[in-house]
Each structure stands twice: as structure tokens, then as C-alpha cells.
Amino acid sequence: MFPQALVNASVEILLKKVISRITYEILGACGLNEELKRLKGTLLMIQAVLNDAEIRQVKEQAISIWLNNLKLVAHEADCVLGEFAYEMVRRRAETRNHINKKVISFFSSNPILFDSKMAHKIKGVNTKLEMIHKEANDYGLKAVCVRDVAHNPLQMTHGRDVDSFLDEDAVVGRDSEASKLVEMLIGTTSDQENLSFIPIVGIAGIGKTALAKLVYNDERVVNHFDARIWVSVSGCFDVKRVLVEILESLKGNKCDVKSKDLILSYLEKELRGKKYMLLLDDVLDEDALKWEDFRSCLFGVSTTKGNKIVVTTRGVQVASVIDAHQACHLGGLAEDDCWSLFKGRAFVSRGAEMNSELEAIRTEIVTKCRGVPLAAKVVGSMMRYNTKKGDGLSVQNGGYWGLDGEGENILLCILKSSINHLPSLALKQCFAYCSIFPKDCEIEKEQLIQLWMAAGFLQSDEGSAKLMEDVEMQVVKSRS
User: Distance (Å, rounded) from C-alpha 74 to C-alpha 90?
Assistant: First the structure.
């Protein structure tokens, strides 16, 4: 999603792992003490400037490249030290197993040759790391003390499998658009056609799904249609999968039907004589052939007039492909509405004095949000836990924005910033790990924690009596 924002987390954890490998056991078991101490010293100096690199990589491509180069060399160092660790285990096993000593020695490497080979590798890694450290100095990277925000449980969204249930408090400033949409759905001229499409078009984070929920749950809409169906498309528009989900929504249970013809037959029975509203959320596919196939299927299963298909999409082209005669194009929120969303997140758990500080820079905040509801919510959530006087200046001076932008660019900048402000390295690494799962994949919480542990992302604090699982369960709860 945002690889640049996550590289720093993986580099920091990798450096900590490499540094921890340079133990007294390895130092004492080979004749490379000075080279290994030199390696550890260089790593510690580089580690000290990573926070500054994290901040600057958003604007400076050279820093982003520097971080990627550092990651490659750190991986190389980790592999070399892994060979050392294996050799130490092998030598201990050889010493303990006197009975099988001849057999083991037959397959073992010569210790002198091994140490010589490792010396060459370590010197090579040291040379590369010292060059990277020199580049850090050339770029002016400095040690930055980052405030401890371990108790900053930022709100993060997992997945895109959106349901139709409405939190009315979360929808602000869309009454006019909602009224127009309701009129399109139930107005006196709305029942003349068998099937009509109504797209809700707007950039990411502008509130398309929130508006769709508001209309979908409107009492007038509920009473007008005999059936309402919500399907989260989110990605590839697979006609058969969408038809199955429509059938499952109507029947209220899982349907294991393989044949498309049989699916349509069941749909025809469920929709016979009914006027329905279908809402397809987060549609991106512009394939005209797929849409023609989908339209033909819907015409075939119902001849009732007045059926409506509402589609939320970021693509203007989608609205053209589905041949919509009317559409709702969402723009940004008014400043007062944007400020209301920001306050709803930022002013919780803050004192009156600090809230006054934010009120004083209200104009700057709403201007930077560009009317994007998700931007106001994300920045508000980030500010909620910054409870020291002067924190509002980080908003005013651009600390949370990273880059200037228009449209979706400003949202991407803010989301990158929210990743950068995650409370710990472990959280960033865990967040990055989740990117290996397909979109909309359902992940069992306990299983995910076990996978994080197996990957070595979770480390208990020294002296902590809490079990690692308990600590990370708290983290998962704070993310959800």
C-alpha cells in the first residue's frame, strides 16, 4: 500500500536483530572481535538516525533510496551472522557427540577455512555499511528523539469488506446529496424502467460508502423496495461471485452453488414479483463486456419495473460504462462539516486549553483536509492522543501532512503520515506483514498474532511479566 512508509519499520527491526546477533558467544568463538565490534558500532550509529530518515523520506527520494540500500546490506549482515550462529551450534554439537565425532567431522567445514571466509564477508559488509553511514552524514541525517507514543492506539481500518449498517454520527454534511439520491430511487418517475443504474462517483475517502449507507437505510427507501441487497465488490468485478453474494443476501445463508445457470434460477425465484434495490460498493472494473453480462443476468431474473442498482466508484469511466442516465458526483465537505469531523476525533481526552489551541488554527486544519472526510478523521485521530501543549503546531506546520497535494494525493499523504506515526516499530512491521493477504481476506485474530510471533516481529519488553500474546492482543484491540 505505502511501501515507502513501511520500509523504515522493517529496516529498524532488521538492524535490532543484526545487533542482537553480535553476542559475546560469537565474539569469543572466533578471531574477528575487532571486525564484529566495528560492525556493531556502525550499525548503532546508523540506527540513531533512522527516525530522521523516516520523516524525510516522504519528501526526499534520495533518502528513500538510502533506506532501501541500507535494508539490502542489513539483510546481508544478517545472513553472515546467521552462518556464524549455525557454526557455533554445529561446533557445540560436535564437542558433545564424541561417539559420532568422526561422522560429524566428515561433513563439517574446516574451522580455519570457515573463519577466514567469514572474515572476508564481514569486512565486505563493514565496507558497505561505512559507505552508507558516510552517505547519512552527507544527507545531514541526525539523531532525532521521538516522543514515546506507546499509548497512542490510532484508529486503523482493516480490509474493505464493508457492511450496510449505518453509524449516523459518522455521516456529516451530506443531507442534500442524500435527498437527491432518495428522490432518484423512489421519485414518481423512478419506476418507469425495469432496471436503472445510479453511480455515486468521487475520490477515495470522500464519503461515497457513508452516503450509500445513509440512503440504503433511509426509512423511505426501506419502505419503497421489497428487497434491498448490499454487495461489497472491492476489486475485480467477478459477475458470478457478485450473483452468488446477491443470492446469499436474499436467502440469508451461505450458498454453495457452482452453476451460473442454477444461480440465476434461484435468483429468479427469490426476486419474482419483487422490486429491489442493489448496492454495489467500491467498484473499479471498467470492463464493458462484464457489465453487459451482469446487466443481461439481472434483466433475466426480474421483469418488475423500478429496480435500482446503486454503484459507488472512484472511476468516472465506470459511470459511463454502466450507461447511467443520472449520477451523484461527490465533492468535498464544507469547512464547518470538515471541522466537525475533526473535532469529533481530536477533542476527545484533551483539555480545554489544548482544544483552544486547535480552535485557533481551525482554518489551517480544514484547508489542509481539502474537504476530504477521511483526511479529517485520520488527522483528528492522530491528534487525539497528543495531549501536550504545542501539539497543534505540528498540524499547522505540516508535520502530519508530509506533502502538498490535490484530490486523492492529499489523502495518500495523510495516510502515509498515519503509518509513520504508529506507536512502535513492531506495529509498523505487523502492519506491513498484513499486506501479503489478499484484499478483503478475513484473518483470525489469534492466528495472525501467531504468524507475527513466528516471523519474529513481536518482542516483549525487558523485565515485563506480561506474555507476548497478551500484549499483542491489546494491540489488535486498539487497531480494531
Answer: 24
Which residue, 390, 391, 401, is CA-closest to 366?
A: 401
β-pair partners for 199:
311
Residue recorded with cell 550509529: 45
The 3-state DSSP class for residue 466 equals coil
Cell of 323: 450507461
Tally helices (H) and strands (E) across the chain.
23, 5
| Contacts of residue 404, Cβ cutoff 8 Å, sequence gap at least 6 | 410, 413
Q: How many residues does the chain have?
A: 480
In tens, the pLDDT along 59-107 reads 788 888 888 888 888 888 888 888 877 877 777 777 777 555 554 444 4
Spatial CA neighbour of 231 closest among 177, 293, 277: 277
The secondary structure of 390-450 as a DSSP string is TTHHHHHTTTTT-S--STHHHHHHHHHHHHHT-S-HHHHHHHHHGGGSPTT----HHHHHH
Give the Cα separation of 326 and 359 in Å (integer). 40
Interval 118-132: pLDDT, tens: 788 888 888 998 999
pTM for this entry: 0.59
- Residue 33 makes CB contacts below 8 A (sequence gap 6+) with 27
- pLDDT tens string 2-42: 444 455 566 776 777 777 777 655 655 556 677 888 888 88
Strands 328-329 and 227-235: unpaired
**Which H or E run contains 30?**
none
The DSSP code sequence of 54-75 is HHHTTT-HHHHHHHHHHHHHHH
Contact, 221 vs 228, CB < 8 A? yes
| 471, HSE (Cβ side, Cα atoms, 13 Å) | 17
DSSP state for residue 107 in the 8-state scheme? H
What lies within 8 Å, CB to CB, of 309 at 6+ separation is: 195, 196, 197, 198, 277, 278, 279, 280, 298, 322
How big, in percent rounded to 5, are the helix, strand and coil portions of the chain?
A: 60, 5, 35
Element (H, E) at 141: none
- What is the spatial distance between Cα 213 and Cα 230, in angstroms, rounded to a whole number? 9
